[in-house]
Amino acid sequence: MSPPRSRLRRVAVLVLEGAKPLDVGIPAQVFTTRGSMPYEVRVCGAAPGPVAGGDGLSYHVAHGLEALEWADIVFIPGYRYPDREDPPPVVVEALIAAHTRGARLAAISTGAFALAATGLLDGHRATTHWHYTRALAERHPDVRVDENVLFVDEGRVLTSAGAASGIDLCLHILRADLGVAASNHTARRLVAAPYRSGGQAQYVPRSVPEPLGERFAATREWALRRLDTSLTLTVLARHAAVSPRTFSRRFAEDTGYTPMQWVMRARVDAARALLERSERGVEQIAADVGLGTGANLRLHFQRILGTTPSEYRRTFARGE
User: Fold this and answer.
1) Mapping DSSP to helix (H, G, I), strand (E, B) and coil, where does residue 19 land?
2) Domain around 292
């Protein structure tokens, strides 16, 4: 059954001249208008009609900037040559007006330049594609550009690195809106990693290239099926067939977390899913995910998520 129209969250995807096709497609597909998702998506431009895109593609958008007046969240996909000039003043003004009205603004890749042109990133951390981080810092010196992260959430202004990290940002927003079960379901639909830390490095230079994140994928999957057991650094390194020191260093490169930080967050995420989708008590859930006691679960839940298990259940429990 589709959610009532009054409960739909409104998503606008702003297509600027030179827009990159993957950057446009990511939020449009993640927040797709379908019965199982409480979102309505509108793709818009400075005006309705054709928009010249990048990479040999062009777009025909149905909506103009009035969609920004309507939206709860506005995505600004990346576009070509962002360091040459700012978007048209009418676009900048519409973004400022949307933010003033209470909308969240989320930039993917070089869309950060358009967001920075509003002044709304001044004094805030932000990121963009690694190739453009220096240009963003030079063009907008009041923005605290972080070149070593996948995405940055500063509340109502959010930015992400290159295209694929736009998926991470969208799933991050989805988790905050709907909970971990909905985010994981969407990640499975997209055949994407359900969770990558925003603090993970965009890339790690190596003399011999290796696919980032794949070295210990089997160990991570193995651990996720055994969260209720003792998962020490030694146990994980033994499964990966490397020394604990090597495992710890390379694991952090791949995930942005130490092995034990990752295990703790995996346990908290498993607890989130059980709180959303089961009637189990906090003590039983704590045992099921390897956190031992309800008090321990509450401690880590508060530290990582800033809320309690009971408050989380009230917010995200199925059917509410």
Assistant:
1) strand
2) 212-316
174 and 216 co-located in one domain: no
Q: Are residues 159 and 237 in the same domain?
A: no
Q: How many CA atoms lie within 13 A of 219 on its CB side?
A: 25
* Domain match, 116 and 240 both: no
220 in the same domain as 172: no
Statement: the pTM of the whole predicted model exceeds 0.90: no
Residue type, 161: A
* Rg for the chain, CA atoms, rounded: 21
CATH number, residue 232? 1.10.10.60
179 pLDDT band, cuts 50/70/90, is confident
Q: Establish if 206 belongs to a structural domain.
A: no
* Residue 149: DSSP 8-state: -
Alpha helices (H) in the chain, listed in sequence order: 21-30, 66-70, 89-101, 111-117, 133-139, 163-178, 180-190, 217-224, 233-240, 244-255, 259-277, 282-288, 294-305, 309-316
Q: How many domains does the chain have?
A: 2
pLDDT in tens, 230-276: 999 999 999 999 999 999 998 887 777 899 999 998 999 899 889 88
Q: List beta partners, residue 151.
A: 160
Q: What are the pLDDT digits (tens) for 158-175?
A: 999 987 889 989 998 998
Question: Distance between alpha carbon 203 and the CA centroid of its chain, in Å?
Answer: 17
